[in-house]
Amino acid sequence: xxxxxxxxxxxxxxxxxxxxxxxxxxxxxxxxxxxxxxxxxxxxxxxxxxxxxxxxxxxxxxxxxxxxxxxxxxxxxxxxxxxxxxxxxxxxxxxxxxxxxxxxxxxxxxxxxxxxxxxxxxxxxxxxxxxxxxx
Length: 135
What we know:
Elements (H helix, E strand, L loop, with lengths): L1 H11 L12 E5 L14 E8 L2 E8 L8 E10 L2 E8 L2 E11 L1 E2 L4 E10 L4 E11 L1
Antiparallel strand pairs: 1-2, 1-9, 2-3, 3-4, 4-5, 5-6, 6-8, 7-8, 8-9
């Protein structure tokens, strides 16, 4: 299902790289892909361009009502149309997520950002897909 979603998203994308500049705000999802289509993880996220090509942000997620909400801090550095990604679950650096991806901008500052993420805690590699608005 993840491959179908990614393929559909990429097929609809008009590839136009836009500069990531200081003062830009990002509001969207951190991840809409998970292990099964019935168990999607949608993590609302907000980010801010603290300087040209560098964005920091915060994501909120909750697997279900029986577990506590988790806050993830993340940062992206953009270069040549791609970005490198690092995220922590709270301030726990033992479960660091590292990745690379590309932000595709659609009309009216809507973006899609597929990325490959390695989780150092689980020792897993996942393909994730986020989307949102940049203003």
